[in-house]
Amino acid sequence: MVDTEPSARRLPAPWLFGLAVFVSATLVFMVEPMMARLILPVLGGSSAVWNASLAFFQATLLVGYLYAHGLQRIRALRWQVAIHLTVLAVAAVSLPLVISPIAGDPDPARPAFWLMGALLLSVGAPFAALSATAPLLQAWHARALPGDETAGPWGLYAVSNLGSLLALLAYPAVVEPLMSLRLQAVVWSVGYAGFAAIALSLGVVLWRQNPVKANAAEATASPPTWIERGRWVTLAAIPSSLMLGVTTYVTTDVGSAPFLWVAPLALYLATFIVAFQPRPLISSRLALVLGAGTMVSACALIRPMPGAFLFGLAVHFANFFFAALICHQALVARRPESARLTDFYICMSLGGVIGGAYNAFLAPAMFATVVEYPAMLVLACLARPWRHGGLRRPLSWGLVTACAVVIGASIIIGHPVGNGMLSWVGALGPGGEERLIAGLIATGALLGLLLARDGRLFALVAMVLAFGAAAAVDHVDVVRTWRGFYGVLRESRLVDPRLGGEVRMLAHGTTLHGAQAQSPTYRCTPLVYYAHETPIGQVFQAEQAAKPRLEVGAVGMGTGSVAAYDRAADHFTFFEIDPLVVRIAADRRNFSYLGECARGRVDYRLGDARLTLHRQPPGGFDILLIDAFSSDSVPAHLLTVEAARLYMSRIKPDGVVILHLSNRNLDLVRPAQALAASTGASGLFQAHFANRALPAMWESSEDALILARTPAGLSPFIRDPRWRPLNAQGVPAWTDDHTDLIGALVRRLRDPSSGKR
Fold first, then answer.
1. CA nearest 637: which of 30, 35, 34, 37?
2. Please, which pLDDT band fits residue 139 given cuts at 50, 70 and 90?
3. Given a cut of 70, is residue 662 above it in pLDDT?
4. Which residues contact 609 (CB under 8 A, 6 or more apart)?
5. Residues 452, 443 contacting (CB under 8 angstroms)
6. What angle do CA 179, 185, 190 make, to 5 degrees?
7. Angle of helix 393-414 relative to helix 284-300, nearest 10 degrees?
8. Which of 45-54, 108-117, 168-177, 183-192 is least confident?
9. How far is the C-alpha of 388 from the C-alpha of 512, rounded, in Å?
10. Confidence at residue 301, expressed as pLDDT on a 0 to 100 scale
11. Which helix (H) or strand (E) holds 517?
């Protein structure tokens, strides 16, 4: 007869459960930024890559939870242990971590589908197996140690979140700076083997104990209703969507880097840790009050303020933390008894998948602009309590009106039309507009605190403010908007009599990607970054004066402005990762540089520049222009030693590489200058300042670096006083294994004028 009493067998030590859960959670959340770093050189630096990756991991987490839930239907714990250990062993076949060669090359027209397949083949099995561990071990703990409630299932859940948080913080701070990607993959694989050993040790103890029967709580627990399950899913979906929304907001104007990816995810996990504690460090009452102020501020700051990146970053991160905490505290208030925890986790995971899929896949197909973030901010307000008494109704509506007026004023002042109407704003001096808007937002936040405990009124305030601010982003001169996997592109227009009338511009996020005058006199005149007076223009004019025919490669198309330099004998090849950009630039109804101004042959290569350039024959280009670093989602893998060696191998012996390095938020100049010493190339640098007496769109200030195989390749520029010798000032060159975007951001904050064009 089988002994089913736990006391008759040697009980497993509670710390062994905690260790197994901690290690599995650490591995799960360490591999997420690691795999995204492996993927970036293939799909570029867009935040969409991280968001889609995160949506995949959320879906795989749900698969792991469903597997854990299904395994609980097997009454014999011994068989559950045997099956899970087998699954862990089978999943290890895909190790060590690499991008599976079976995935092939990405399809530029459908990058998200390729990304899902590549992640599934590369890490799907071990990730799902590890994801199932936390709910499985909590369920096993409840059966093997039914009386140990202090370190029981919810205690293990806190341990799991702690391991996840430490892994996320350790990756950008320790792992990524100190280890190459190859070493990271090996260390993670060794960690997986170590976890398997811990799981085997625990499995042996449980096998010997073999508690066949469920405990009394499990036998008597009533299943949750579908309405309650719906609440769990909704309360989990809102923070998940907000996490991806705030990630996109932050990375659009900096770059896709682990320290930016993991910050929202770490805050997300921190809210779980706080919410699921018996005595939370932040009470639900305090979270409601503090979250009210940050919510009002975040809604007003949907429109970014140039020059106030850190202010906006702090506001949106703080608001995300409190909004997620309020939702997770509401989840805790509705959690079931421990016997139904796998059901609870499945609903939470399903909500995470819905929130992530909404941002990563549904919203780009449903909306022409990024409205999913402000929409989810409003839904987060509805998760607040609805009835708490307190203020009288007339006073409440008065506060609503005051909030709308104050924040509306900040929106108007920040709008181009508002600046025209309110000429006195300029009297505030440099940065005066930002200070005034910040003061108005702070005032609105204080007013919002008084509405903190009425979810309906607060959601109304948030809706008015968020969508009003979002509308201010789409300035009155925006005439067309497109949205694709890599973000939102806007065509806007202004009238400048000095350029013959209308000028059309293309922007991605807050970054201008080119402009074209529509007057016949200036239609084929390259403007802004590519004007004749700029470093890029100087190089093209010098090379054309020396050579009757040029082979030109250009990474980054924009409006195709550089094609204005294309002579009948020249051949231009554009390397562009976003098919939408090619479609817009090649359509004469939008811009006509490619269709009208280019006189010679023009070709396009879709895909990441590293991959597409690798397929080009060596020594083919006279000029190779790398123009992919202007503020939005900086592709750091295009500014590494390995990338520079590829560029140098693709130019002729007397050819040159031009790196356009202008960036508002990052100092890219010094790491780029360090590339010359690391690759043995010769180089010169120029910091160009636009002539303010010329029309606004005529030329732009810019930083540019030219590299050549030998000093002779730079002979047209060596005697030009505008070009200076390189000086990296001790900053090391970036490599594929390590890019220092944190250092680039810090240097820009210390020296805002350098390279900030």
1. 37
2. confident
3. yes
4. 555, 556, 575, 577, 626, 628, 635, 638
5. no
6. 105
7. 40
8. 45-54
9. 47
10. 73
11. strand 511-517
Please give the model's pTM, rounded to 2 decimal places.
0.78
Q: Classify 682 as helix, strand or coil.
A: strand
pLDDT tens-digit series, residues 695-704: 878 888 899 9
In one letter, which amino acid is 78?
A: R
Nearest to 560 by CA among 577, 572, 551, 550: 572
Stretch (H or E) spanning 149: none
Distance of CA 182 to the CA centre of its chain: 23
- Identify any residues that bridge with 478 across adjacent strands, giving them in sequence order: 492
Place of tokens 């900053």: 731
Residue listed under structure tokens 């010359």: 676
CA gap 137, 151 in Å, rounded: 12
Q: Pull the structure tokens for residue 6.
A: 């736990």
Tokens of 147: 């009386």
How many CA atoms lie less than 13 Å away from 2 in the CB half-sphere? 11
DSSP element (H, E) containing 493: strand 487-496
Nearest to 81 by CA among 136, 131, 1: 136
DSSP bridge pairs for 255: 634
- Taking the mean position of all CA atoms in its chain, how far away is CA 581? 20
The residue with tokens 């109804």 is: 589
Whether 24 and 134 have beta carbons less than 8 Å apart is answered as yes
Q: How many residues does the chain have?
A: 757
CA separation (Å) from 350 to 91, 124, 206, 224, 394?
23, 17, 30, 16, 41
Residue 433 near residue 419, CB atoms below 8 Å: yes
CB-CB contact of 543 with 550 (8 Å): yes
- Angle 391-392-397 (CA atoms, 0-180°, nearest 5)? 90
* Tokens matching residue 13: 């030590």
Encoded tokens for 183? 């070493």
